[in-house]
Amino acid sequence: MHYKKVFGLLSLVAIVLSFAGAPVFAQTASSTGSSTPVTTPQTTVKKTIDGSCVANAIGTRDTAMETAIDTYNNSIKQALETRKEALQSAWALTTVKERNTAVKSAWAAFNTARKNAAKDLHSAKLLTWKQFATDAKSCGPRAGALEEGYRWYDNSL
Known about the structure:
Elements: H1 2-20, E1 25-28, E2 38-41, H2 51-91, H3 96-137, H4 145-148, H5 151-155
Helix pairs in contact: 2-3
């Protein structure tokens, strides 16, 4: 007896669900005043991706990436120049203790500058891709999805 109730309920659910996927028709009143309703199928508007919008977002993103890389390279160049000068000065010292302290200090300062440059580059890349995702959203549904798949190229810079 219990199985009959469950089977009946499942059959009813299946019938209801089969009608859920059927086309929906809207009734509109006729302008002639007749009582015969006119039915038209409802359609959904399919959104498309604006390619020129995505191209502009890519241009903005890649220009920001170039700027971030240039900033990183300039920071590293400056750190190397500072390290070179500090090490040359350190090796000109005559006492071993002072020289060792100055060499360690030069390398520590370089390491700090290098880490800071890397952190700044990482942050710039994250912000650049975040802004790209925001810009691409206005170009259509999932407009930046294909580009996101190639994000790891920039992460390896």
